[in-house]
Amino acid sequence: MIWQGGPLSLDTLTRHWTAGAGALRVALDALEAQGLITRTGTLYGPEGDEHAARQAYAHHSGVRACTHCGCSDLWACPDGCWWTGETQCSSCVDAPLPALSAAGLAGTP
Ligand SMILES: [Zn+2]
Ligand SMILES: [Zn+2]
Known about the structure:
Blueprint: H1 2-5, E1 8-9, H2 10-16, H3 21-33, E2 37-40, E3 43-46, H4 50-61, E4 83-85, E5 88-89, H5 102-105
Antiparallel strand pairs: 1-3, 2-3, 4-5
Helix pairs in contact: 3-4
């Protein structure tokens, strides 16, 4: 949600986060370490590749997400999408994006 409405404050993020405040801080730290978000004061803003960030977000929050592009109910594809399978969204039916590996998420800036 940082990408859709950011920069956002921690308070705002907490309201949208469903996995608990502790997990949110862990996730934000991890995303920042991966260069996927940037923090200015108390505001968190987007940084880097949205595709990678979506997958990282889904990983950290534990929400249902597309295994191909990493989109979720809270963070759909840029053009919008819907579920076509348990772990596949409509955007990925015809042209699935390559799934990023864990190594890719931890890649160099
Ligand atoms: Zn997808
Ligand atoms: Zn999608």
